[in-house]
Amino acid sequence: MTLIFKRIADYEQLGIGLFIHWGLYSQLEVGEWTELIHQRKKEKYEHLRNSFTASQFHPRQVVQCAKSLGAKYIVLTAKHHEGFFLYDTKGLSSFDALHSPAKRDLIREFVNACNEENIKPFIYIATYDWHSKLYEKDFNKYLQYLKKSVEVLCKYYGKISGFWFDGNWNKKQANWHLDELYGMIRHYQPDAIIINNTGLKNRGKISNPEIDAVTYERGCPQKVNHNNQEKYISGEMSLTLNNHWGIATNDLDYKSPREIIESIAHARQIGANILINIGLTGNGEIPELCKNYLKLIGKWVKMTKNILYYGKATDIKATSPKDFALKMNDSFYLFVFNLRIRGNENVVLGGEKVSSRTFLNFHKRVEKVSWLDNNEELMFHQNLKENSLTVAATGFDYGTDWIVRVAKVI
Question: In this protein, which residues make up the domain named Glycoside hydrolase family 29 N-terminal (predicted)?
Fold first, then answer.
């Protein structure tokens, strides 16, 4: 029998998360891997600590930005691969925000703001570390250093909803002593979700029985194998707005809102959460472009009501590519892709004709089908013998294009 833990069920109902990359690298504005990829001298690079002010980092603004997206949780990089901590390590390291001009425990402020505003705080910790000499010279001592740095968060920062680790893929054959690390987390934060990013080559793989969700970084899986252990496992996709996770001001290749919205819809179709990433500026400010992107995506999320959080996957199959159905309570919700806008004989926009969409394995007797965005009732035909439902999907009203449209079936 597969165990379904409450913390995992609750996590799946969060649906959408905001991922935030911020560190010393943000001051250079050329991506989070700049120290390694640009072969910067370690000593010179780490002097960036002396100009790290965090003067524009306001946790409540971050929380409000997440809410504008419709995100229910935030994952913030407390330590990326550069090894710089955004919190007080209690003497474990001087390479932290308390020993910078900021002189602030930024993670404490973040966790407090999240908990006060009903957003779940998740902490990102890089396990692959360029700063600590122990990583290469004495790996077992490094693991103790890593464990102690996480223990500080577990013991002194109140309720933390999840830990998001990243970097074990750098030493694939090493013994990371995960039972010790995860056991410590379970002791202090028993309800915290544990995630360890598997990297690009091992998407969806489970590295330890304590893992609560598997990752699909930049991936778009067709399914999540939720029941491949005795414990039910969730899944999480992630994408960033352009091609970098840390801020990169010369990367102009931003994803279209269509790609982002369709990715969110697909994640929920397969029962996975999704993280949408932004990079803060060097002083901790949210770039205006990112704010506007998140607000724009958030308009669609709001239009879909609570379906993205509480809707469950079904075995209903659509005959049109991409279309799918979720179920919430006693109603079904049809996600319909590739509709066009309705014009007239003078302005033809492609949505003037009704698009027939058929869904199979539909057993419920239907009384009404209507769009969520404008409550327009739709014509439909149901074949109860063949368990099929065909809906006359109308195009968007002129002046409107939701990209993915949702119809409620009761």
Answer: 11-303
Closest CA to 379 of 362, 355, 351, 352: 355
Region class of 60: left (phi > 0), else alpha (psi between -120 and 50), else beta: alpha
**Contacts by 140-146 with C-beta closer than 8 Å and gap 24+?**
140/177, 143/176, 143/177, 143/180, 143/181, 145/92, 146/181
State the distance between the two ends of the chain, measured CA to CA, in whole angstroms: 33
The CATH class of 6-310 is alpha beta
pLDDT tens profile 358-371: 999 999 999 999 99
The pTM score is 0.96
Domain positions in the chain: 6-310, 314-409
- Enter the tokens of residue 185: 């987390």
Domain 314-409: CATH superfamily is: Golgi alpha-mannosidase II (2.60.40.1180)
75-132 pLDDT per residue, tens: 999 999 999 999 999 999 999 999 999 999 999 999 999 999 999 999 999 999 999 9
